[in-house]
Structure formats: structure tokens, C-alpha cells
Amino acid sequence: MKVGYLVQQLSIRNLSGMNAVKSRSYITILLHVLLWMLFAFVLLFYQPLTWGINVPYQFWMKQSVVLILLIVVFYLNSMVLVPQLVLRNKSLLFLLIILLIAVAAGPLVHLFEDAVQLPRLMEKAFDQVGMHRPPKKSDRLDLFLILMLLIIVGISTSVTIIQKWQADKQLREALEKEKIGSELSFLKAQINPHFFFNTLNNIYALTHVDVDNSRNALHKLSRMMRYLLYDTQSGVTSLKKEVSFIQDYITLMKLRLNETTKVIFNAPDDGDAIEIAPMMILPYVENAFKHGVSTVVPSEIFIDLVLNGRQLELTVTNSIFSDQSVSADEYGGIGLHNTKRRLDLLYPNTHTFSAGQTEDHKFIVHLTLTLDGTELHRS
């Protein structure tokens, strides 16, 4: 039934997406039609209506031909010339074609006028009201038509380039979101499988000596799995849940530690209304347990999480032993490097990060994040 429900939900989302796309398409078409109607009225039809003469229908045919010519040039430029020439750095060829179209448009329109005998009909219409129409120049170069064509080409080119820029931006954002999602999935898999295997073994051994503690450990492990499977799917989680996850992780890790290791975790009590990218803190804690624990030498792991307004400050300090002297990159491995990439994507210019070894054989990771302080909204 759960599979059927998921299929149903996916079908509903797909239909909703298709309906949204169709709605946007209809709106775009309607907007284009309205803009062309406004353009045609202002430039082609308004002025002749103010002449006060009985304009022959051949004149409106000619104006319609001019409008169709402008529309053809607009979409030819938008769909063919700009994508094939301008966006491929063939600007000189683009300019030559546009100039050729602009120069050829005038003679084509004049041929139509001569075919329907429009000049004679217009002179007759002006004579009927006692108005003298100035004679047209004998050349076939229509400067007003050329100017309109160049304006149309300029608008079409600008709109197409802006749309291409917006599409590229949306694609980059989609790729970044997909990359973030992949890195989050990778981070989930990054939790050492040996941790779960060893934790289950420790819980099994604990059932023989302390049933209550073993039940508590199983509860924490199941709560961690629920967090990983469900609470991280929306891309954000509350800081309180993230802290609870880290606390459960530390509690279960302590099952494997002996008395020579001291673990201190300081965390804020609030944070339920503060959003954070999930699994952002764990890699630093996990690496501290990986490199800062010894079975024979006393060691210490100190994790300090401070929330000041919308700024979150994390400090992780762990012991480094003489045979484990490593650089920050070696210490972090893939998990820490991956988390740093997520920081750059999710918190650009709103985070600081540093990691390094001190002279007293301590390794310190310091991270500050500026978080969103709004209430969580879950779909």
C-alpha cells in the first residue's frame, strides 16, 4: 500500500507540474498577443485614424503586411539568428543579415503597394477632403520601416539573451541543488557502517548485563535512523533535531570507549526555530572520534556549540597522538572535504571555517554559520 501511495503522490505531482507548465505557456502566448496588438495600434493604426479621411482598405492590407513582416523578423531573430549566431560569437554575420533584411524590407513593401495601386488610392482619398498629400520620394528606402525593424530586432535580441541568461541561471541552480542533494546522500553513506555494526554488537553484549541501558541504546539508534531517513529529506532541519542527533551519536560512541577517553558536548537548549542544513555538524564530530581516541593513552574530545542570535559557532577539539600527526586535509578525509564544499554552496559568504593542529597535540576545527532564524515550513 505504501508503494501505491508513493506512486499516486508522484502522479499527482507530475500532473501538477504539467498543468503549471501549460498555464505558464498560455500566459506567455496571451502576453505576446496583447503586446503585438498594442504595438500594432500605436505604430501602424493610430496615426492613420487621425487623418480624417476615408482610408482605402488596401492601406490596412499594407499595414497588416508590415505588421506580419515585423512579427516574422522578431521570431526569426529570437528563435534562429540569436541562438545560432549571437550566442555562438558570430556577431558580424548576424549584423550583415539584419542589415540585409532591413534594406530589403522597404522594396518588398513598395512592391505590394504598387500591386494594389495604393499610392493612387491614397492620393484620391486625400483629394476628396481637399488635403494635399506630399509626394513620396522616388527611392525605395523606407527609413521609418528600417527604424521599426531595427527596434524590433533590438527588443527581440535583448529578450532572447535575457531569457537565455535566466535559463542558464535556473539550470545552474538546479544543478547546485542536485549536487547538494547528492552530497547529502553521500554524507549519509559517509557515516561509518562499522559504527552501526559495532553499535549493534555493543548493544547485544549490553543486553546480557544491563537490559535498561540496552533498550535505551536501541531507542537512540532507531531515532538516529529515523532522522537520517525522514528528517533530512526537505533539505533543512531544525538545529534542535541536529543537536539531538549528535547527542545520540555521542552516546552510542561512548559504548565503545573506556575510561581513558573524556567526551564533553556543550549545546544550546533552544534552536527549534532555527534552520540548518542537515548532517552539517556530524563529519567534524565523527572525525574527532576517529582520530582523537586511544585505548591506552588518556584522550579528550571537546565539542562546543554556541548559538548567538542567528550565528552558530562550532568548536571541536580532540587529542592527536604522536603517531597520528596529520595535516588538516588528511585529517578531514573525504567527509570533511565534502562538507566544506557544501558550506560553499549552502552558506556562501556567510560562514568561516578553519582547522589545524596546535603545538600541544590538539586538533581544532572552528566553524561559524549565519543561519535562517525564521520558523520552519514543511511541505
Record the SSE blueprint.
Layout: H1 2-49, H2 57-84, H3 91-115, H4 118-128, H5 143-190, H6 193-207, H7 211-231, E1 237-238, H8 239-254, E2 261-266, E3 275-276, H9 282-291, E4 299-308, E5 311-319, H10 328-346, E6 351-357, E7 362-370
Parallel strand pairs: 2-4
Antiparallel strand pairs: 1-3, 4-5, 5-7, 6-7
Describe the structure.
The protein is an alpha+beta fold and 379 residues long. It has two domains: 2-173, no CATH class; 191-370, Heat Shock Protein 90 (2-Layer Sandwich), CATH 3.30.565. The chain is built from ten helices and seven strands. The protein has helices at residues 2-49, 57-84, 91-115, 118-128, 143-190, 193-207, 211-231, 239-254, 282-291, 328-346; strands spanning 237-238, 261-266, 275-276, 299-308, 311-319, 351-357, 362-370. Strand 6 (351-357) and strand 7 (362-370) form a beta hairpin. Helix 3 (91-115) packs across helix 5 and helix 6 (193-207) packs antiparallel against helix 7 (211-231). The protein is rod-shaped.
